[in-house]
Amino acid sequence: MHKVAITGTGIFTPQETITNAELVASYNDYATRQNAAHAGEIEAGTRAAMPMSSEEFIVKASGIESRYVMDKAGILDPETMHPRLTERADEDISIMAEIALDAAKKAMDEAGLTAADIDAVICAASNHERAYPAIAIEVQEALGIKGFAFDMNVACSSATFGIQAAADMIRSGSARAILMVNPEITSGHQEWRDRDCHFIFGDVCTAVILQRLDDATSKNAYEILSTRCLTEFSNNIRNNNGFLRRTREGHMEDRRDMQFRQEGRKVFKQVVPMVAELMLNHLADEGIAPKDLSRLWLHQANKGMNDMIGAKVMGREPTRDEQPNVLQEFANTSSAGSIIAFSRHSADLPAGSLGVICSFGAGYSAGSVIVRKVA
After folding, report:
1. What is the CA angle 207-367-328, rounded to 5?
2. Which residues lie below 8 Å from residue 251, measured CB to CB, with a gap of 6+?
3. How far apart are CA 185 and CA 4, in angstroms?
4. pLDDT tens digits, residue range 290-315?
5. Cα distance between residue 277 and residue 280, in whole Å
């Protein structure tokens, strides 16, 4: 069995951003229009008035201050309230593959690898723009990588599940180096017309290079000591869109359940203890005490959730250095969040430092990756 290391990461960041102030103005304009259009029903009590949003509400609920998006104009247009992304011909590169290439090249540069050094590509993301051919195979072709590629989806845990899948293949000898990309255009499945979640998501793409530790030459390599994944079925985070939609009468109409929706309070109460228990049991089984951890790179969904999980794992409130957050800038970027935190906040640790990359989300799903700084 071969030892495995993360030797490179990369981040693609869209050029456009939306602040909370801009988002609130757009949503409140839409809500005001809807309330005026349905004033009679609201007065009769047959329809509830849409509530107004505020910057204070968003920060208190999530800790998010802004988000990057692929198309700002469509999202902020009260007549549209979703991104407007130009359709591409089949022979043109897809938008997910395009942003994945940007992040992948950065990760390959950091790892010191070329396409000839990589044996496989995994595209691990919460939403894929088509059923087939796989986005991963498109990325593989564009980069000139031989071997194989495949897509996978475990919602917000896709990256940590992808790390485990890649690490297992490298450990067993079926690959020497693997590229994993996480293209997350979450603005496409976000419901921007819902006050309770209109602020949650942002767009980004991350990439991770995993390879045999013996082959690693990166100046920021982290050995993967152990990985663990967990799933428990729940309807509390759900999106009903899919290829069977047209087979069901009325489902091609504009339906709320065809976008992201969640029971936020239930998710908070159920996921926090599940994730903390996963991490604590994982550490205990590996003989690692929480006090020996230098850093936690957690899924960037909600600051309150991260604070509580961190406190349960560490037995005290973690410092900002021990548990860096990036969601105030990026918002929730689904599977990419924990990788952004790791990519931005890992180079400063000395050799021998221990940390955990952890993500969690719909499914429910959670993944824990224990790493140790090599160089």
Report:
1. 60
2. 245, 258
3. 29
4. 999 999 999 999 999 999 999 999 99
5. 5
Buried b / exposed e over 336-364, threshold 16 CB at 10 Å, is bbbbbbbbbbbeebeeebbbbbbbbbbbb
Separation between Cα atoms, residue 51 and residue 194, nearest integer Å: 9
Tokens of 316: 């005290």
156 flagged as catalytic? yes
Amino acid in the structure at residue 63: G
List helix spans (H) across the chain: 20-37, 39-44, 55-62, 72-76, 95-111, 135-143, 158-172, 264-285, 303-314, 327-330, 337-344
CB 202 within 8 A of CB 332: yes
pLDDT confidence of residue 250: 87
- Which residue among 156, 197, 205, 358 is the active-site one? 156
The residue count of the chain comes to 375
Q: Taking Cα atoms as reference points, which of 181, 131, 132, 122 lies closest to residue 152?
A: 122
- Backbone φ and ψ for 241, nearest 5 degrees, come out as -70, 150
What pLDDT is recorded for position 264?
A: 86
- Which structure tokens are listed for 4? 């495995």
0.85 exceeded by the pTM?
A: yes
Contact criterion met (CB below 8 Å) for 186 and 75: no
- pLDDT of residue 375 exceeding 80, the answer is no
Structure tokens at 87: 């359709």
